[in-house]
């Protein structure tokens, strides 16, 4: 237990500490693994000589919880955890989730809604004069005024709502040390106006310089077009080299966002991941239960940060930036050796990657010195002429990992950009990926097949995905392997109407695939797609975008993706009728559903009679089943 940072006052005293420098408050259970932001920040501070204590998942209704270690010398550091608390708590339909993977036994309810705000208010009550610094994904994506899907309105910067002194955004190793050193030197928190990657508030702009004045909070609340224009300015200022300071007036305050923090060098990345993590959850949870979130990452390796993929529904641009930062192969291999020494290691490294596994270098040399292009993407709608397509370094890393003692398999499970794979003229990586690094099925994310919808998603065209699929199965055949592709698909994204949803259903019919789960577009802060959802325009061009918001239409779009499920029959029929596509109702192989609605099975219960049980058993062979699933062999032959 002594290897972990103190979680009780007794543990703090056992280290000989009279007072903590920082108390870190998190909405997650305490897991000391580099996939958890809390672990990285606290271990970094520890490495620089600061005394850090941790309060994980405190009872937010008791102020004494926040006085556990006494008054911290330098400040409270507050995060909702690895995931936004509202996303953690609610599905896209705004229903309460039943499981929290970052809590013992997946128990729900161990953190409040809008956890960063609630924790900040309680910390302020506990010690009114102690600096409060908020960070993590929840704060990072809400650093300026933003549309909030759960309230269906524009909320203030989280800095104002939390009544915090400073907000840190992005990846924070460098930033937190700069803040800690300044506070330790006696600089008041209100004077920390110069730190990159931070957001501060003021009523006097005399200390801000070379800034862009954004529309005020009042203006963007009053006019959605103004909101869209403001967001686009923010979106174009997310790179550490080219970004400017942004200032947003809000109800008597100025919220000032400094340019993003400098990205880490490879040596700095290596240092971060070489810190003495235990790679376990704290022993205090042994009696409470397992932390599900550690399962996938415990035997996985992070090789990079950032993403230039440009998916419009993804917030990575806002949080990690578009420029790829990588660890050295030596650093990754050293961590892999530690993994193999774990008593629970079974020989399988579950993943080697990051936001996008096969991005292992910046997309072009220009990004390193001049930053990313403000108005151009690297891959969409077509690959930039300056794009460097090269898998050789990543492939060499995978080869070295495969040869380590006690390693049976090295899988690649984080996102593979199939378009980047297809742009590589050398097929060596594709062949070795299929031969050595797929665990029976490869998950990829075409997200949709309608080119119109794909345009608004920022994804490559269907034709490129079709080429990838053909090549994937051709390589499998050549290697005598029987492995499958599992496509991630999304319904109800801005730009998708019923015709687009039906196009996707027809595609699933043709490949004879029905997804087990369907993901509705989830409007989260910090994405272009969320701005489209709220404003009805593409903020880059200010042109109108169709947005499916009606709950019934969204239900129809979901149902079309699982059109074979008898429970979805009515919704699928209604969608086809509204779209004028009743030609897809019939008995021909190209039809999605039959004219006759299938009967649903009777739910079993303890009171079910033998007669009812017999009826349920007979349901397995209803008279219409062949018609309902008809054409399966014909479609397969087609």
UniProtKB/TrEMBL annotation:
Low complexity composition-biased segments: 599-621
UniProt remark on cofactor binding: Binds 1 [4Fe-4S] cluster. The cluster is coordinated with 3 cysteines and an exchangeable S-adenosyl-L-methionine.
Record HAMAP family: UPF0313
Identification of the protein by name: YgiQ family radical SAM protein
Keywords for this protein: 4Fe-4S, Iron, Iron-sulfur, Metal-binding, S-adenosyl-L-methionine
Signal peptide: none
Database matches in Pfam families: DUF3362 (PF11842), Radical_SAM (PF04055), Radical_SAM_N (PF08497)
Protein's organism: Turicibacter bilis
Cofactor(s) the record lists: [4Fe-4S] cluster
């Amino acid at each position: 237990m002594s290897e972990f940072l103190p979680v009780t006052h007794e543990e703090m005293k056992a280290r000989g500490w009279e007072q903590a420098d920082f108390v870190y408050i998190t909405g997650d259970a305490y897991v000391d693994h580099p996939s958890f932001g809390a672990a990285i920040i606290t271990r970094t501070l520890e490495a620089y000589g600061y005394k850090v204590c941790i309060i994980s998942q405190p009872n937010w209704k008791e102020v004494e919880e926040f006085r556990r270690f006494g008054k911290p010398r330098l400040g409270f550091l507050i995060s909702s955890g690895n995931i936004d608390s509202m996303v953690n708590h609610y599905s896209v339909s705004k229903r309460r989730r039943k499981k929290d993977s970052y809590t013992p036994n997946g128990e729900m309810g161990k953190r409040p809604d809008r956890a960063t705000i609630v924790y900040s208010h309680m910390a302020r009550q506990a010690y009114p004069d102690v600096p409060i610094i908020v960070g993590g994904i929840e704060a990072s994506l809400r650093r300026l005024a933003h549309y909030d899907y759960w309230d269906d309105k524009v909320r203030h910067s989280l800095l104002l709502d939390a009544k915090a002194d400073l907000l840190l955004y992005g990846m924070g190793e460098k930033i937190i040390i700069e803040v800690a050193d300044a506070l330790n030197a006696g600089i008041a928190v209100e004077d920390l106006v110069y730190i990159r990657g931070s957001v501060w508030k003021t009523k006097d702009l005399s200390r801000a310089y070379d800034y862009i004045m954004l529309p005020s909070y009042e203006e963007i609340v009053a006019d959605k077009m103004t909101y869209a224009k403001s967001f686009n300015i923010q979106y174009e200022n997310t790179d550490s080299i080219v970004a400017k300071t942004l200032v947003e007036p809000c109800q008597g305050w100025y919220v000032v966002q400094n340019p993003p923090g400098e990205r880490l060098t490879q040596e700095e990345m290596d240092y971060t991941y070489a810190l003495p993590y235990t790679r376990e959850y704290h022993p205090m949870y042994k009696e409470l239960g397992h932390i599900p979130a550690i399962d996938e990452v415990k035997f996985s390796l992070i090789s990079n940060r950032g993403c230039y993929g440009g998916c419009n529904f993804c917030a990575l641009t806002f949080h990690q930036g578009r420029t790829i930062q990588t660890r050295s192969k030596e650093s990754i291999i050293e961590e892999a050796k530690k993994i193999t020494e774990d008593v629970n290691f079974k020989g399988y490294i579950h993943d080697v990657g990051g936001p996008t596994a096969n991005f292992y270098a910046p997309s072009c040399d220009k990004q390193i010195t001049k930053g990313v292009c403000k108005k151009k993407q690297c891959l969409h709608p077509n690959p930039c002429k300056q794009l460097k397509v090269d898998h050789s370094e990543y492939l060499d890393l995978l080869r070295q990992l495969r040869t380590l003692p006690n390693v049976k398999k090295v899988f690649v499970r984080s996102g593979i950009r199939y378009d980047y794979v297809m742009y590589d003229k050398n097929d060596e990586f594709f062949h070795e990926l299929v031969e050595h690094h797929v665990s029976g099925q490869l998950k990829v994310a075409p997200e949709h097949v309608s080119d119109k919808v794909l345009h608004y998603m920022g994804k490559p065209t269907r034709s490129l995905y079709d080429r990838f699929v053909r090549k994937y199965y051709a390589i499998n055949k050549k290697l005598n392997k029987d492995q499958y592709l599992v496509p991630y698909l999304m319904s109800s994204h801005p730009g998708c109407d019923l015709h687009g949803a039906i196009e996707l259903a027809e595609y699933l019919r043709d490949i004879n695939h029905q997804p087990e789960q369907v993901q509705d577009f989830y409007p989260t802060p910090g994405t272009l797609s969320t701005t489209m959802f709220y404003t009805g325009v593409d903020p880059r061009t200010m042109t109108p975008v169709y947005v499916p918001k009606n709950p019934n239409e969204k239900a129809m779009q979901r149902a079309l993706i699982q059109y074979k499920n008898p429970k979805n029959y009515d919704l699928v029929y209604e969608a086809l009728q509204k779209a004028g596509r009743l030609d897809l109702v019939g008995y021909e192989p190209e039809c999605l559903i039959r004219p006759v609605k299938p009967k649903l099975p009777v739910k079993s219960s303890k009171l079910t009679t033998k007669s009812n049980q017999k009826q349920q058993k007979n349901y397995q062979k209803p008279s219409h089943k062949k018609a309902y699933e008809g054409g399966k062999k014909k479609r397969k032959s087609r």
